[in-house]
Write a structure and sequence with these properties.
The chain is 33% helix and 32% strand. With 253 residues, the chain is α/β, with parallel strands linked by helices.
Length: 253
């Protein structure tokens, strides 16, 4: 095939789409034929442009990355490079050799490496990953492992944090702080996405920006207007908002 790849970019964040387009332009050898802000536009773009590769965000409203793949005919599905802010998807990506991923925030060198892998796969005649392989690699949870560990990206490495070791978790802008004893891991994610990986039997939201490990509670001090203060076993004092106070009381009963 030609050294120039055709590509479409699928991401609901305009800044992310524009940044990726700029990076690809700087790298060269890639012609972006469409930028899509949702899954519906992505499906239309694949049918219209028949791109060699699709940069696909996983977490999108209404139709996420998995839904996009499910909705495209297997013989029309281009090579897929997942772009995601969530490290747990990237770890699962290692399970499928043909699968590419780039963690956000986007890095020029990682994009370049992914492009080179795609070009190499075309050059060696490697078949496209099947739709079922793509979906099973990322959409199926590894229950045996996920029940024990929370996966986070720490610099260029992945850390597996024992869920039972987590004291509490808080949102901080575009990041989430995971506190384990006197250590804190900072990851780019939403509190909702992290909460989805945790068992409601052990973890409970006590504030719109805070989740507590129930096993790490040492004391609960009632406060005014239905609020409370949780004192953890490490001595941290955490506020329980009125909205979540009733939920906490019912849970502890």
């Amino acid at each position: 095939m030609s050294q120039t790849l055709t590509a479409i970019i699928v991401d609901d964040e305009p800044l992310a789409r524009n940044l990726l387009a700029v990076i690809l332009d700087d790298i060269g050898g890639v012609e972006v034929t469409a930028q899509c802000q949702n899954g519906f536009e992505a499906i239309d773009a694949v049918m219209k442009y028949k791109p060699d590769v699709m940069f696909l965000d996983i977490e999108m409203p209404e139709m996420n990355g998995f839904d996009v793949i499910k909705s495209i005919q297997s013989d029309m599905l281009p090579k897929v490079i997942f772009t995601t802010a969530y490290a747990q998807y990237a770890v699962e990506a290692f399970r499928v050799k043909a699968l590419n991923y780039v963690l956000k925030p986007l890095d020029d060198e990682k994009i370049r490496e992914s492009i080179e892998r795609v070009k190499l796969s075309y050059g060696t005649g490697d078949a496209k990953p099947s739709k079922s392989a793509l979906l099973s690699a990322l959409d199926r949870p590894d229950k045996a492992h996920n029940d024990r560990a929370l996966v986070v990206k720490d610099s260029d490495k992945f850390a597996f944090l024992g869920k039972s070791d987590i004291d509490w978790i808080e949102a901080d802008g575009d990041y989430v702080c995971i506190h384990l004893g006197h250590k804190t891991h900072l990851i780019r994610a939403t509190l909702k996405s992290v909460e989805a990986q945790l068992s409601p039997e052990n973890f409970l939201r006590i504030h719109r920006s805070t989740i507590i490990n129930l096993d790490k509670i040492d004391e609960i001090v009632p406060a005014q207007k239905g609020e409370a203060i949780i004192i953890t076993k490490t001595g941290q004092r955490l506020k329980v908002s009125r909205r979540y106070g009733a939920i906490l009381r019912n849970k502890l009963r």
